[in-house]
Amino acid sequence: MASPSRAPQVGQSLGGVLGQRLWNAVGTLVQPVRPLQWDATNTVANRARVIAVSAQKGGVGKTTTAVHLAAGLAQHHGLHVLLVDLDAQGHVASSLRAHLRTGADTYVSQALLAHDPDLAGAATPTTLPRLHITLADKQLSNAEAQLATRMGRDLVLARALRTVRSRFDVIVIDCPPNLGLLTLNALYAADQLLVPCDLSVLALEGVDDLMRTLQTLQWTLGRCPQVLGLLHTRVDRRNHKQNSAMRRAIAQSYHGLSLRTEIGVNTALPGAQLQGKVVFEAQPESSGARDYRSLCDEVHLRLFADSQDSHVPPPLFKPLITLPSPRRTGAVAAPR
C-alpha cells in the first residue's frame, strides 16, 4: 500500500485524470474528523451510531461478530442496541434463538419493500437487556431483486433507519456475504464499518474488494462509512510464523486499520451457537467470551468518550485508508 506521502504519485499511476479524480474522492476518507458537540439540540449527535459488519469471504465469523458486538455493547456497556439482519440466511435469529421472546410481526424484507420503508415495526426485543433485533427471512433475496428496480435503491435502508436511530445508541448491521444491493445499502446507511477477516490470503483479497467498493460509494454517492477496523478472526494462536507473516501483509496493505483485539479459534463459540445463546451466557469464562468482551471494549472506546456518561462521544476514530497497491491487486479502475 502507498503511504500518505506518496499520494500524488499513486493518484497519477492510476490512469491520468480519472485516476487523480478517484484519488481525490478517496482523499476525503483520510481527512481529520470534527468532534461532535453533544447537546440536546444537536440532531447529528443524538442519532445512533450505525456499524456495518461486512466480509466478502465466508467462514470468517461475520455473523458471530455482529451478534456478539451487539450483545456485548448492550450487556456490558449499558447501550440500547438494535441488531439488523440483512442476510437472507437468517443466522442472527439462529444464533440468538434462546434469547428470542416472540416471533417477528414484520420481517426486514417487508419493512424495506414498504412504500415508506421503516424498521421500527420490525424491531423485536430479546431476553438480553437492551438488545433488539430485526429478523431476516428467505424473502430477503427476492426483496433485493425488487428493490433493484426502484429509484433511490441505494438509499432504502438509510430511509428505513430514520425513526429507529433516535431510539437506540448503536445499530449493528449484519451484511450479506457479497457486494450486492443490500450490502451497498448497509454501507451507505452506516457511519462505521467493521471488517472481520481471518489471517489468509483469500480473506485479504476480500478486504481489497470491499475497500474498492467504499471508493466507488464515495465517488458515486458522495459518502461512505469510516473504517472502524479490521478484526482478525479464527486465529490459531499456535501458528505463530504464519500469523506473523499475514499480519505483516495486512499491515503493508492497510496500515493502522487492524484492531488490537483478535478472535482466536475456540470451541465455545460454535457450542454457544448450538445452544442459540451468546457465548457471554453459554460459557462466560471461555477464551471466546474474553475475546469478544475485549472487542466490545475496544469498539466502545473508539465510539464513546471515557467519562461518567458513556453516551458522550469523542471525535470519531478515523483511521487511514489508502489505495490497494497496483503491484499486488492491479490498478483500481475509475467507476463508470
Detailed description of the structure:
The protein has 336 residues and is of the alpha/beta class. The chain has a single domain, classed as Rossmann fold. It is built from 14 helices and eight strands. The chain has helices at residues 7-13, 16-27, 62-77, 91-95, 108-113, 139-147, 156-160, 181-189, 201-221, 240-253, 268-275, 279-282, 287-303, 326-329, and strands spanning 49-53, 81-85, 124-125, 131-134, 170-174, 192-198, 226-235, 258-264. Strands 3-4-2-5-1-6-7-8 form an eight-stranded mixed sheet, with helices on both faces. The relative contact order is 0.19.
In short:
With 336 residues, this protein is of the alpha/beta class.
> Nearest-angstrom radius of gyration?
19 Å
Shape: globular
CATH class: Alpha Beta
Helix proportion:
40-55%
The total of beta strands comes to: 8
| Order of helix and strand elements from N to C terminus | HHEHEHHEEHHEHEHEHEHHHH
Indicate the CATH topology. Rossmann fold
Tally of individual helices: 14
* Largest sheet properties: 8 strands, mixed
Strand content: 5-15%
What is the fourth-level CATH superfamily? P-loop containing nucleotide triphosphate hydrolases
Strand line-up of the largest beta sheet: 3-4-2-5-1-6-7-8
Mean pLDDT over the residues: 81
Tell me the structural class.
alpha/beta
**Domain module tally:** 1
Q: Which stretches are poorly predicted, pLDDT < 50 over at least 5 residues?
A: 1-45, 306-336
CATH-derived architecture: 3-Layer(aba) Sandwich
Q: What is the first-to-last residue Cα distance?
A: 24 Å
